[in-house]
Amino acid sequence: MANIESGGGLLTQLQQLPTSGARAAEVFTTDEGLFLGVPQLARDVAGEPPYMNGGDSDIEAPIYRWLDGRFVEHEALPLPGGEDLEYFEIDGRRFLAAAGIRTGKGPYDLDTHAVVYERIAHAWVPLQDFPAFAAKQWVAFSFDSRHFLALAQGVVVDGMVPRHPRDSRLFEWNGERFEPFQTLDGQWGYNFAFVSFEGERYLAYADHVSGSSVLRWNGETFAPLQSFDENGGRAFRFFEANGALWMLHANLLKHTTLYRFDGAQFVATQTLGGAGGRELCLIDGKQGRYLVRVCFITGTPKAPVVETQSEIFRWRDDRFERVGPFATSGATDAATFTVDAQRYLVVSNALSAGVRFRTDSTLYRFDG
What we know:
Blueprint: H1 2-6, E1 11-17, E2 26-30, E3 33-37, E4 60-67, E5 70-78, E6 82-90, E7 93-100, E8 111-120, E9 123-133, E10 137-143, E11 146-152, E12 169-173, E13 178-183, E14 189-197, E15 200-207, E16 212-217, E17 222-228, E18 233-241, E19 244-251, E20 256-261, E21 266-272, E22 277-285, E23 288-295, E24 297-299, E25 304-306, E26 309-316, E27 319-327, E28 331-339, E29 342-349, E30 361-366
Antiparallel strand pairs: 1-30, 2-3, 3-4, 4-5, 6-7, 7-8, 8-9, 10-11, 11-12, 12-13, 14-15, 15-16, 16-17, 18-19, 19-20, 20-21, 22-23, 23-26, 24-25, 26-27, 28-29, 29-30
């Protein structure tokens, strides 16, 4: 059991955070300190039967501050149906983009408002509001002195007609606010990842039902480069190794795939794990590069099987070798950070084995 608990001996549990339906872990540093933001989907409603899409989604996202080797509650943002927080900076200004999938306690409203906040006088002040539909994730990226925000959103629900824009889209900073830049095809967006490699810019987009894709910057817009004709897309991660560009793709319904870019296309070279993978966290440790494969559920939303283990892999000889599992509970995200030369890992857990939202998220010391 010790090996299962510790990810092959790499993890030591340090703290449990009392979260409810936690969907992401966003670690960021400002001149005020180091912080952890945790968007939360919902809280349990007394007497309501277990249902992963039920609960009271009119909830907040706690923001913890790092103090004396642990996280302490610091502040909170209103974030109904919380899915994501994304911290970024532009020209010394500090921003936090928030995305939630829904509001209400049932029936729910998927027409939401994704908000970008700016840090002013030690407070998060709303800067801009974006009408959204089932918003899942913000990703900020920059190149050539241009700054973009990508919003993954959308869902397919019988009989539901969105009032707000439903397509995933890109926005560009004009110096004071973000303006619409590009709309993507796709009905159920989950995630984006961006990378620059050998003078080219690539943007990967994960979609649950419309097929995921990689786009390449052509000087004016992001144009389709490669598509993946499969349902279940959840997350992408890029990295460089041995002079090559590599890409990981987590698919909730199948497995996680490692790709290598051959100059024209991303070619599959390895499959990792099975179904249930939702997020990916790369760690550059003292002993090499590691991958945390975050596992959420299998089955269906109406009959989910909560995954109780996630996995750690180590990079070696152009492939990932499995180090070992560690105990999680419907895990949704992982983030890594370093303080005083010690590396840490925080994992957001969304569901208990009994499909309840009230599940602790966990802080670990990472010794790889």
